[in-house]
Amino acid sequence: MKDIKAAIIGTGAAARFHLQAYRKCPHTQVTAVCSTNLDRAHAFGKEFGVSGYVSIEEMLHNERPDVVTVATLEWEHERPVLLSLEAGCHVLCEKIMAHTIAIGERMVAAARRAGRTLGVNYNYRSVPSHGLIKEELVRGSFGEPALYTASMHAYLWAHLIDLLRFFFGDPVEVTAAIVDDQGRRPLATPHAGRAWMYAADMIYHPSVAVSASFRFRNPDFIATMSGSALVPYSQCFWSFALFGTQSALAIDAATGANLAGTPSLGPIAARIRSLVPCSYPQSFDRSVMAFVQALHQGKPAPVTGEDGLAAMRLEAAVAESARTGRCVELSAASTSAPR
Question: What CA–CA distance (Å, rounded) separates 206 from 223?
């Protein structure tokens, strides 16, 4: 099996999780990190024993990585993703893939032109309990879904949008309402110094409150999601419940230490309780390792660039519905089927 050489663009918490996860992957080594801040690049490089760069082009030329993680601020993904793809690298981009649909489309098109894999790190797909729920949905253990409800802290809104698609596929319409206050919007990251500035086009991090209702067909059912920056983050990442024609499941108060939360209702809850707890850092390990395994096996990324773009379009539809006060119909061409 060919060794994979990895590089990291970004020096924040997500970059650290990615580097540590790559080091747990067989036949994989991280050789470099790149940041626009020279001191941070050198400090990060010294801490982990890798080369530090401030120029993406120089890093790509000197290191010749096989795969690049892009873990910069969300609105700074475009240039490093496109440069890395053009250099012939596979790319694992942190969510949200881009801050505009047009940029996301350019990323997906660039990956196709380059013949390289573009993945998006929606790491909560890799949580074992979520994999089990997906398996049981496919197996038909819930019967036909009738109602799915989820509530979450603002930081988890984008992740639950992705999990909605992971569990059920793509809805056909959405109706939403928002109470917005930019002053209450959380910082994009603790070190960002800025909150998400593009909520008029994509919600990403709700402020006071957002609620959206999604209509699915074949089978015909409803999913609702609500998020707020006022949810106690340390005590509750998210809670959700699924009611089907044959079984039900509730997940209460998932936390950074236990992403499975407290399961109840129905036989699947007992199976989830028997799983080893998965923490926030471990979800990065599992997600990055799954991406690397897919590269080794020549398979698509667990979460593709097309998936990332579809999640962005769903975010945009929520924002449009809240802005216009109308139901937004979603065309089949605007989304891609999850795996």
Answer: 18
